[in-house]
Amino acid sequence: MTLAERNDIILNQFEEYLTQIALSPATITNYLADMRNFVRWGKKTYGDDFSLITVAPEQIRAYRNHLLEEQKRAASTVNRHLQALRKCCAYLTQTNLSPINAAEEISLVSGEKGTSPQSLSAKDVEAFLEAAYQTLSSIAKRDAAIVNLLVGAGLRLAEVSGLQLDDVIFDYPGVHLAVRDSRGQGKRDIPLSQEIYKLLKEWLLIRPKTSFPYVFLSREANPVSSRTVQHIVSRCAKTARLNGVTAQLLRRTYALRLLEETGDLDLVQQRLGHRDSGVTKRYLNIENPQTDADG
Q1: Adjacent-strand bridge partners of 256
Q2: Could you give the C-alpha distances from 93 to 31, 90, 98, 108, 122, in angstroms and in order?
């Protein structure tokens, strides 16, 4: 069996996987089109020995640069290709076809400069979250809960500082937040991971007793401000030696990961609290794949 035939088989198996996890037909079609484009580029660039099984991070970076600098693709088109690669590489590692996820640490690009990260890599997220535990502060548990909500639930700054005790739902239909939209557009439900649930419970056990209904309080038992939340983000980023980290970058990282995992733009829109999917597409700098299938 030639490597070209093996690549075809892998893409056929990848298509079956995407169908099994119930991605939309349009998403599946465009993921496969983007992956076939990548394979054609790889064969042309590296020769007949190019294989999806042994693809390396530097090859994906070279492909990203090829799309940006040689083909002059829009950042949104480049990001769509990278999303397809992330999904395929994750599949290859999950099925033990490849020992590493070559796309895991490859950053998406922004619309302005084309090479700046639009989201944090998995490694950067891990370093950022670990930094929250490195403080000697007596309210380190509070800070850990805050940063995990930002990157693991996609909350806005004002939504974190405005979160109230009765917004945290611990019973049916599962642990979630009933988030009060910071712009007065009602509430939206956001499910919580076991890790965030644990962190919230730990913080609430030591939270200062006060008449304030807010979840997050200062040492003086006053509600934290959005500015305080941003300060916590900046401190954790500095500890982790990460530049340019803001609450908005963490929210975008959450949204892009959710889209990558589910392929469901409507779900991302709902979780972010956007009024329509067009806002979500612009926020994530991702085009509608159906309008640019050959990009």
Answers
A1: none
A2: 17, 5, 5, 20, 15
Same domain as 139, residue 42: no
| CATH number assigned to the domain comprising residue 91 | 1.10.150.130
Q: What are phi and psi of 114, to 5 degrees?
A: 80, -15
Q: CA-CA distances (angstroms) from residue 94 to 39, 57, 116, 126, 251?
A: 20, 17, 29, 20, 26
Q: Do 256 and 284 contact (CB within 8 A), yes or no?
A: yes
Residue 223 burial (CB count, 10 A): 17
Q: Identify the domain containing residue 235 by its residue range.
A: 122-244
Q: Tell me: do 95 and 203 sit in the same domain.
A: no
Are 12 and 74 in the same domain? yes
β-sheet bridge partners, residue 190: 177
Residue 213 within a domain:
yes
pLDDT in tens, the chain (295 residues): 788 889 999 999 999 999 988 878 888 898 999 999 999 999 999 888 899 999 988 899 899 989 988 888 888 788 889 989 999 999 999 999 988 888 887 877 765 443 344 788 888 999 999 988 876 566 889 999 999 999 999 998 889 999 999 999 887 567 888 887 655 557 888 999 889 999 999 999 999 999 999 999 998 999 999 889 989 999 999 999 988 888 888 999 999 889 888 888 889 999 998 888 888 887 887 654 433 333 3
Q: Are residues 73 and 162 in the same domain?
A: no
Q: How many CB atoms lie within 10 A of CB 246?
A: 14
Pairs from 269-272 (Cβ < 8 Å, separation ≥ 24): 270/188, 271/153, 271/154, 271/188, 271/190, 272/154
Whole-model pTM: value is 0.62
